[in-house]
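Sat 14:20. Reprocessing the chain from the morning session after the first attempt stalled halfway. Input below, unchanged.
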Amino acid sequence: MKRTLMAALAALAAVSALVLPGVASAATSHTVSATGKVALLSSQGTRSTGVGLFSGKPLGATNLALVKNRVVSGKINSTITVYNARGTLTVTTVQTSAAGPNGSTLFTGTGKVTGGTRAFAGATGKLVFKGTLPKGATVVSYRITGTLKY
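Finished this time. Tokens:
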């Protein structure tokens, strides 16, 4: 899996280098409806790093995300960088976790899009995250909804 993710990162970087910056225009609102999976790469104390693959509206398929988490007062604060062939998006989130059915862990939270590059320069938006980590699993499945302006 690690080799596959590294290959995906390399391919995305190569494609991104070929895309020219978008022409500035008025921001347009887009509905966000996406799903994704995040795997933990490393964890030390209250900090962890994960990588995810997301697909859905408005960004399309195979969006790679680097997730940096920090647990503070029982809440998971994350900074997420989403890599897309047209640019990047930066998102901050606050999530909580709770016990779910059959030993699973449920994650819920909100996110704020704080910026982006190239086609997503000046991006803003609000997101809602809902995730499930099945008992014994290492990958969280997420559903993301909200709005994005770029």
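The beta strands are 29-44, 47-57, 60-72, 75-84, 87-99, 105-116, 124-133, 139-149.
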